[in-house]
Amino acid sequence: MKARAKTTAKAAKKRAGTAGKTAAKKSGQKSAVAAETGVGVTITHPDKVMFPDDGITKGEMCAYYEAIAPAMLPHIVGRPVTMERFNRGIGQEGFIQKNVAKGFPEWLERVELAKKDGTVHYPVVRDARGLVWLANQNCITPHVWVSRVPHVHKPDICVFDLDPSGDDDASRVRAGALVVRDMLGELGLESWVKTSGSKGFHIVVPLDGKADSGKVARFAHGVGEELVRRDPENFTREFHKKDRGGRIFVDTGRNEYGATFAAAYAVRPKPGAPISAPCTWSEIKSGKVGPRTFTLRNIAERIADVGDLWNEMLSRKQSLKGA
Predict the structure, then answer these.
(1) Closest listed residue to residue 175, CA positions, set 290, 285, 292, 291
(2) Do the Cβ atoms of 213 and 241 come closer than 8 Å?
């Protein structure tokens, strides 16, 4: 499996590199109206600059999502998606879109789910075509649920999002991630980690899908409270930054019904186009990896070297019964 992942990654790296060169050649020329992909999605305005400081175009971003699909799809398939869209690139304000009620292709799967005052038609990705379609909507980051269709009330993962108070707290948040890992280990639960692509890390516990959203959320909140009780100088549950006192916010709200987190391998709307990418605990401990280490332009080489570090997690089905 890992050998196949590396072979796929090498091909992905070649495609992404070609796309980058094509985008570079087109800079300074009249903007292209459309470009074809290998998955049946026509990219509109591929020369649109999405990351102005880096010259990364919409075409290059869409090529990235097409290339990364073999690694990314197992982690996103079946999860309702909320799109974080930037129609004019990250130089201008973006917006969040949950409901896809019109302007979508017939083949795109959607799921109608209840909200407080009605329902929402969420897009659901099943293949590379769906992933690239999202990118063509100027969706830089697909945010996903912790559960999958049709079992939307039964999460198959539990997420702990560590959000430091400042941009220069990388060493502190790395240490915090290790503390979370160790506490989960005390409860008999193995966890995996990925960079957030922003300021922190996401720690993920794979589940057997038997506990409902309420139980998973209560478990996560309980772990968060215990972290603060044990180490109040470094952890906090205060949502507002002004109340955190420089501490790491343990965000467990990602586990509530309808809440989301940045999908594995998602691009984040930050300069450099950082990726929310899986990493190893040894890389966290050694300081080799930081929250924004991986980017749209270096992740192909990373995948070629290590494959999908979360592949093993997909087969781990842990119970919260004894936790």
Answers:
(1) 285
(2) no
Write out pLDDT tens, residues 173-217: 999 999 999 999 999 999 999 999 999 999 999 999 999 999 999
On whether both 20 and 92 belong to a single domain, the answer is yes
Is pTM beyond 0.85? Reply is yes
Question: First CA to last CA across the chain, in angstroms?
Answer: 31
DSSP state of 197: S
Final residue in a domain of this structure, among 211, 234, 255: 255
161 and 213 co-located in one domain: yes
Cis amide prior to 232 (ω within 30 degrees): no
Residue where one domain finishes, among candidates 240, 255, 270:
255
90-140 per-position pLDDT tens digit:
999 999 999 998 889 999 999 999 988 899 999 999 999 999 999 999 999
Same domain flag for 139 and 177: no
Does the pLDDT value for residue 72 go beyond 80?
A: yes
Residue 192 forms beta bridges with which residues? 204
Question: Which residues touch 240 (CB under 8 Å, ≥6 apart)?
Answer: none
Domain range for 199? 157-255
Residue 322 is predicted with a pLDDT of: 76
Judgement on whether residues 200 and 106 belong to the same structural domain of the protein = no
Together in a domain, 10 and 135: yes
Domain count, the chain: 2
Q: Which two tokens stand for residue 270?
A: 């930050």
> Helix, strand or coil for residue 230?
helix
Does 49 share its domain with 181?
no
DSSP 112: E
> Given the structure tokens 């494959």, which residue do they identify?
307
Question: CA 291, CA 262: separation in Å to the nearest integer?
Answer: 13
d(CA 234, CA 247): 5
